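Q&A log
Question type: sequence-to-structure
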Amino acid sequence: MIESRTRPNPVGRVASEPSVVALAVADAAVVTAFLGFGLFSHGIEPWAYPTYTLETAAPFVLAWAIVAPLLGAYRRSTLESFGRTVGVVGVAWLAVTLLGGGIRASSFFHGGAHPTFLLVTAVFGLAFVLPWRLAVSYGRRARR
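Response status: OK
Response body:
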């Protein structure tokens, strides 16, 4: 008897290339750069205080690592579409702002989650993350 089996897709709808891991690392670097820029704009040189910079970025990098895959930021359909990138990354960053703010407000990290800080993080963070991810989409589309 011949059995018919459907091959499972072990990574779901996530693009399965090794480049996705590199993209996730680059995303973390972009989020860290954004928060480092924020520190710099407040008179703190992030390169002079690397531990402080990483502690500032960690709640948002962690939140991105949780939220972005859940909302589809690493799906092939998102990575290859400008429209989906704008939608997914926009919603993801807003969720990251709230979750990252909540993590930052915990006793495990310095800082807090003042509403003004969260609003600035939402707006300016998206201004950092979205162009980066649109550039990724452009690059993937150009490779096709």
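Response note: Residues 115-143 form the longest helix (29 residues).
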